[in-house]
Amino acid sequence: MISDITGLHHVTSLASDAQTNNDFFTKTLGLRRIKKTVNFDAPEVYHLYYGDETGTPGTVMTYFPFPGARRGRAGTGEVGTTVFSVPEGALPYWRERLSKAGVANLSEDSRFGAARLRFSGPDGDGFALTEVASDNRAPWTAGGVPEDVAIRGFHSTDMRLRDEAATAELLRFMGYEEMDRTGAVTRFHVPGGNDANVIDLTRIDAPFGDQGAGSVHHVAFAVENRDKQKVVRKALLDTGYQVTPVIDRDYFYAIYFRTPGGVLFEIATNEPGFDRDEDTAHLGEALKLPSQHEHLRAALESRYLAPIHD
Question: For residue 54, is it within any domain?
Fold first, then answer.
């Protein structure tokens, strides 16, 4: 069994417009844009990162905004809901704030005894805020949301699966333990992990999803460093998973593999961090390009990457 995974590192999704995406996360949700870079494999497309002040693993939502991308079709084999943690008593504030902002599909429910506020992102993305009493992570407070109600980071992701058994077995191998279950939902967590250490598996009878704008592309799990990542990679390979070589993503090192339920998993290092090429006070301000794409800067900025207005 793997013992080096501490919880979520980041969640990466698809969008249809960079400016709309930026406004939703920085102005509506009050997160910080911590990096403005490009898709390594499609440098004509932005890669935008949002999180807390420094981009602490477990707080980082990232997006590939493909201009004009069609919406995804929800289904199985994907993350259905990405859940953020807020303090107890914060949901009335958020319901009013999101309602005034015209956010779609606001509804309240509870899961495993915790109150939640569900809503959709600009491309139909599935989100929820859940109240957590014991989350002591420091929020980003320069985004217009008061500290006592601000988002702390991720709480969990909810994966929709036709058959959750094989993915549950994988999570146990990754160091997760079953925490609770009710109906079609089974909750797992990493004991002693970071504060983004919960995964829900929801069994539904539906066709596989078709990815597009609003879909989660992959879920990344955190390990401390490259040495621990190597241990995790070997364990996954020895178990029969097809795992990519280590890929340098500038702000972390990544490996990827497809789960039995169809969700793409990544294992990402906490090092070197998002301040490797920008001072913390100025994270996310300048367009940062991977070294292999630096020679394209003039063309990218003039033809493909429309300016994002803060």
Answer: yes
Q: Which uninterrupted H or E stretch holds 92?
A: helix 91-100
Q: Is residue 269 part of a domain?
A: yes
The reported pLDDT for the residue numbered 125 is: 98
**What band does 104 get if pLDDT is binned at 50, 70 and 90?**
very high
pLDDT per residue over 200-239, tens digit each?
A: 999 999 999 999 999 999 999 999 999 999 999 999 999 9
Distances, alpha carbon 194 to alpha carbons 16, 18, 173, 224, 270, in Å? 31, 30, 18, 11, 12
CATH number of 255's domain = 3.10.180.10
Range of the domain at 229: 7-304
Q: How many CB atoms lie within 10 A of CB 30?
A: 20
Cβ contact 188:177 at 8 Å:
yes
Tally of domains within the chain: 1
Question: With b meaning 16 or more CB within 10 Å and e meaning fewer, what string describes 3-29?
Answer: ebbbbbbbbbbbbbbbeebbbbbbebb
